Recover the amino acids of this structure.
């Protein structure tokens, strides 16, 4: 292995270590209380080394959002197909959120305040735009549901339905963090059952 290749692997490993440490710090201390000093200490790095990779905790936070955004988008696209019905797409989306948040509770702890609008990147438009990358899968879900609702003549307003899904998504996250996975699943199943009943009654 050459020197350049070895250095590249070392830098990649260090970056991975920083991100893992930052996720734990954000989850434990919260976005507002987390400091670059805390992240450097958790990653066992000098503060100057941390600043070599990231200029601020906002930049690290956004990096985490972008990383998870790519994972979520890829997974959602594989689950919801062209042939899925509206109800199937809805079920697949909620099932995914249940699985994803349950497996990634460290990220959920740091992400929930962002979902609720408590995390804001003041004065840095680049970071604000980058943070939106996590929500790209939301645009995909919107378009998919819109097509299926039109095709199946679903009697709901899309925007209102998406607002309800987001509220349910937050509720699922809270229940999982409280250790009430069964209640989170029950809420998702109740919502799907309610949608089915309304659709059947509207025929």
């Amino acid at each position: 292995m050459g020197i350049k290749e070895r250095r590249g692997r070392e830098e990649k490993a260090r970056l991975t270590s920083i991100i893992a440490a930052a996720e734990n710090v954000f989850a434990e201390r919260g976005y507002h209380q987390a400091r670059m000093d805390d992240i450097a200490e958790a990653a066992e790095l000098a503060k100057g080394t941390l600043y070599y990779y990231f200029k601020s905790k906002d930049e690290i936070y956004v990096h985490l959002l972008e990383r998870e955004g790519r994972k979520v988008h890829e997974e959602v696209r594989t689950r919801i197909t062209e042939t899925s019905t509206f109800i199937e797409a809805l079920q697949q989306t909620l099932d995914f959120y249940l699985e994803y948040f349950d497996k990634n509770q460290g990220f959920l702890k740091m992400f929930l305040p962002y979902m609720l609008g408590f995390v804001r990147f003041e004065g840095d438009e680049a970071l604000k735009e980058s943070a939106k990358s996590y929500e790209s899968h939301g645009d995909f879900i919107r378009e998919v549901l819109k097509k299926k609702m039109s095709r199946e003549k679903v009697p709901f307003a899309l925007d209102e339905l998406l607002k309800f899904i987001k509220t349910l998504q937050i509720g699922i996250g809270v229940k999982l963090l409280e250790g009430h996975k069964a209640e989170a699943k029950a809420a998702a199943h109740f919502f799907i059952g309610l949608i089915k009943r309304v659709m059947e009654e509207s025929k």
